[in-house]
Records
---
Amino acid sequence: MKDRISLLVCVAIGSIGAIGQAIWLRHDLVDTYPYKMMGPLSDLYYQIGNFGGIIAPAVSIAALFGFLWIKKFFLPAVPVLLCPLVFWAVFEFVFWRGPYHGAAMSVSRFDHTTGVSVHWLFVKTALTLAGIGLLIGLASGLLVSLGERLLRGSPVRNEAH
């Protein structure tokens, strides 16, 4: 029973983290500078943010169930590593299929940003979130494993009188 509870805690921690990362990345693309100020590219960022905000956590949480064979303390790290990477893959796919390539991405805006510089800003953000998510996921998994060991080592009290 304790194994199932710790497994559920690990899955919950990883899932909550992945959803938080997706919300963060969506917020960046939809609501913040420079993405919101990029003229026609802003509509594309808005679409990517909304689509990626749903797809990335769903795929990363679903993928977690394919990793149930690994040690439990790695489980919270799986979705928080995958979510930003899946979001980035969605970002790249939409740009690859979209109308903005080459010269359109090199046009300098009023603040000297270009589509290319903003593109790499998102890549940097996604990779940073993936790295931080991995570290926090591993730390969380280790804490859950430590808690499980402490609970196993504690004596069981008989409270029946």
Note: Helices lie at 2-31, 40-64, 77-97, 103-106, 115-153.
---
Amino acid sequence: MSNNSFLRNRISLTMLPLAGLLAVLGLLLRGPFGNPSTNPSAFAQAAASPNFGTAWVIILLGSVVRIYSLMVLFAILAQTRAARWVFWALLFSFVSEALFLSLTGILAFATPVAAKLYLQGDAGLINVLKAGFFSGPGLALLYPSGLIGTLGSILFSIAIYRSNLPLWAGILYALTTPLLAFAPAFSYILELLGGVLLLVSGTWIAVAVWRHQPASETTSRTGQPSLMGQA
């Protein structure tokens, strides 16, 4: 990888903490995520508020930014001994984010409309959401997306460790997807923690890459040239 290419990748890697920042902002704006199956009125009140749709648009943008940042991280880590790990990490993460984006679009654009109509007396659309998103097809995408994304995050953390980047940055990154994917069902605090960990780990990884010089003679923990020696 040329020095100019490595510099461009380092600049582009700032998108990883940006993805975490958007996740945190979106979750704070949205608040706890209710379930229309247990309390449709409370869910409709929350979903009909201006913040709900805006929050999910921000979360959606965060996912798009995260996809781009993972491509950049792949380009950097693929130059190291961790190449075989990062290939599968990117593949699983892509599949997970693609499945999640399809569900996020429903929450960002369709759910607020259905909630407003429910509050106006049309209860049928909330039932459609319950049947389509909170059970059946929606869950058939949501849980596999979370499991696949968790595997991708773990593989990325292994690749980060093997490339001589900070071990704990990789560990924190590995925790982001399971918290963001599964915590909403039982804990808003843990879901928010997932966004915070994405922001912290993304910033840590970006800073660690920035601090290395492309021509430095460093070696990875495996005894092979690190990403800095390969630049």
Note: Residues 3-230 form one domain.
